[in-house]
TrEMBL record:
Protein name: MaoC-like domain-containing protein
Top-level taxon in the UniProt lineage: Eukaryota
GO molecular function term, any single one: (3R)-hydroxyacyl-[acyl-carrier-protein] dehydratase activity
Matches recorded under PANTHER family: HYDROXYACYL-THIOESTER DEHYDRATASE TYPE 2, MITOCHONDRIAL, HYDROXYACYL-THIOESTER DEHYDRATASE TYPE 2, MITOCHONDRIAL-RELATED
InterPro entries registered for this protein in UniProt: HotDog_dom_sf, MaoC-like_dom, UPF0336/Enoyl-CoA_hydratase
GO biological process assignments: fatty acid biosynthetic process; photorespiration; thylakoid membrane organization
Pfam families named among the record's database cross-references: MaoC_dehydratas (PF01575)
Stretches assigned to the MaoC-like domain: 30-76
An annotated GO cellular component: mitochondrion
């Protein structure tokens, strides 16, 4: 459990409406650098021992410049999500994830929010995009 908290313990940068309620068009961003230890911990949790993620020589021989971060690490956990992996993410590469609310509706004292999702590397290259749906207990984002 500690590994999960450490792997996903990063502080988001929020940009949302001045009245502090999530609305369509609001964006939430966070930046993360995935370490070698993150890949090892994820491998233990997921039983994913793919050498592309763990062995630098294997990854180079497969045509990558370094080990490739597993596709689900730059993503996020939602009720549902579609992902399109556009470019590989490498170990120690800074990644900025961004979600933008595209629609929000109330349902049984909760909110169903649809988002576009995007991740960029430190040179601005789109590495992942898609759509996500989340069930939110409130429309008030928590400030870090």
């Amino acid at each position: 459990m500690m590994a999960i908290k450490r792997m996903f313990n990063y502080i988001p940068t929020l940009r949302y409406s001045s009245d502090s309620y999530l609305k369509s068009g609001d964006r939430l961003k966070q930046t993360r650098i995935f370490s070698s230890q993150d890949l090892v911990e994820f491998s233990k949790l997921s039983f994913d021992a793919n050498p592309l993620h763990l062995d630098p020589e294997f990854a180079r021989n497969a045509g990558f410049k370094d080990r490739v971060v597993p596709g689900m690490l730059p993503g996020a956990v939602y009720a549902s999500q579609t992902l399109h992996f556009r470019s590989p993410v490498y170990v120690e590469e800074e990644i900025t994830g961004e979600v933008e609310a595209t629609s929000i509706r109330e349902s049984k004292k909760k909110y169903i929010a649809k988002f576009t999702t995007r991740c960029f590397n430190n040179t601005g290259v789109l590495v992942l995009d898609g759509e996500a749906m989340a069930v939110l207990p409130t429309l008030c984002p928590t400030k870090a």
